[in-house]
Amino acid sequence: MRYAQRSQRRTIMPLQPGVFTVHPADYARVVEVWEASVRATHDFVAPADIEIFRPLVRQVLPHLTLASVRDDAQIIGGFVAIDVHKVEMLFIHPDYRGQGAGRRLMTHAVEVFGATEVDVNEQNPQAVGFYLHLGFEVFARSERDGLGKPYPILHLRRRVP
Fold first, then answer.
1. What is the model's pLDDT at position 10?
2. How many CB atoms lie within 10 A of CB 119?
3. Torsions phi, psi of 150, nearest 5?
C-alpha cells in the first residue's frame, strides 16, 4: 500500500524533539518520505523521472550517514543524508512541514557530522532560500543534475562565521 493512501487514514502527530538514527529497516519509509516531498515541492520534476530516481535513492541509502525526525508513533517525518561533509539529501514529508524539521536536521548535519556543502535544485526557490538563510552560499552551478537530467543544480558551501 502506498503511503499516500495510508496518510488519509491516520492523524498526523507533532514531531518529537531531537534527531534519531535511521536503520536499514527504515529505508522503505525514507524512500516514501523522499517521494512525497519531491511530489509536493519539486513540481518541475517529471513523474517519469521520479520513477527513475526512486530505486536509485533506495540503493544509495546504505552508503550514506542518515538521521531523522520522528513523530510520537516513531514514524519518520523527515531525514537528512550525508556523505563525508556534503548533505546529499534533506527531505521532509509534507505532513510534517512547518515544524522546524529541516532546520533541526541541517543543524544536526552541520554540528554533528561536519556538513559544509549541499546541492540544491535551482528550480526549487524555497529550498534555495532555506539554505541561504542557514548560512550557505552558492559557489558553483551545473546546468544538469548528476544523472544528466535538465535540472540545474546550485552548489552551496557553508559560510565561515
1. 47
2. 18
3. -80, 55
Q: Which amino acid is at 26?
A: D
* 3-class DSSP assignment, residue 97: coil
Q: SS3 for 104?
A: helix
Name the pTM for this structure. Answer: 0.89
The answer to whether 155 and 117 have CB atoms below 8 angstroms apart is: yes
Give per-10-residue mean pLDDT for the chain (161 aa): 42 85 98 94 88 95 98 95 97 93 97 97 94 97 91 93 68
Q: Which helix (H) or strand (E) holds 153?
A: strand 153-158
Q: Distance between CA atoms of 17 and 111, rounded to whole angstroms?
A: 17
